[in-house]
Amino acid sequence: MMLWVVALPSPVSAGPAPVAYSANINYYLDGSVAAAGPSDYVEALSRPLASVTGCMLSTPTARACGSSSATIGLLTTQSTMTDTAPGSMAGSAESANGYATFRDIVVVRGLTPGSYQLVPRVTIEGTTDWSGVVLPFTASVGVQLYGPDGKAVIQDTPLDTTQHSVAVTRTLGGIPFTAGVPFNVMIGFGHAARLFRNLPANTSVTASYTMRVTGLAVLDALGRVVTSYDIGALSGAAYSASGIERVDVESPDFEFTVSGPEQTMIPNGNPWGLTHTPDEGMSYRTFDGGCACGSSAVSARS
What we know:
By secondary structure, this protein is mostly beta strands. The chain has strands spanning 3-8, 20-29, 32-42, 50-58, 62-71, 74-83, 93-109, 115-130, 139-146, 153-160, 165-171, 175-178, 183-196, 204-219, 225-226, 230-233, 238-240, 243-245, 262-267, 282-283, 295-296, 298-301. It has one domain. The strands form five sheets. Strands 4, 5, 6, 8, 11, 12, 14 and 15 form an eight-stranded antiparallel beta sheet that branches. The protein starts with a strand and ends with a strand.
């Protein structure tokens, strides 16, 4: 199993948010990363987007290329896996994968003091094309919901999307939070375009998918829907029952403090093998009223 290890600054004060975006592409063999592609990890409001494109594998018979991007409420991945001799691949299956995440910090106001859940609804749309015969899991996608501390996945939602066109909506599990207390909203999305050694019916698969947050519900401790509330986001995005929309607004008027130093460890040993370990550094900027947090690095452990 591999881990993301992210050192966070301390403290994070009011003003611009410690929002984060990541975009990654990889070549997988038998469910493990065999060739890492480029990755982008952004934690700065000056660039509210992570985006990568490139090729992870290029041999005389096989090629794995793709792209991935992330911003608040919208994650996009695309990849093509080509192998003119799939029967000779080193494993039982190979795939070109994309994975992207966004993280925001929000506070829900206007609620009676107590415990609640924020329940996202996501819509997944995309297409898959293959050269030969359709096989189960020729293309698959997965959604990962993170907990309120942004450290660990609390729900995996994998889907077999081996169809020429896909449009599905899924309600995810709830993110627990306390009224008036800031917490993380973090979602990951990934896909795989896959070829099989023992079923060499295809020599090329291309998959392209997007995931949007198209709905949000607030539930009280008894699971009842709450309709009167206000959500403020440090990213400046608009959160409502209709989902998340990125808008250009001033930063909200609440503070968030991270006790530190702290390490965020995010497991990515999921059953559909779509996550990736970023290998680039991330930086923190000095903002008016904020802190000079220096810089930090992202590393991988196995």
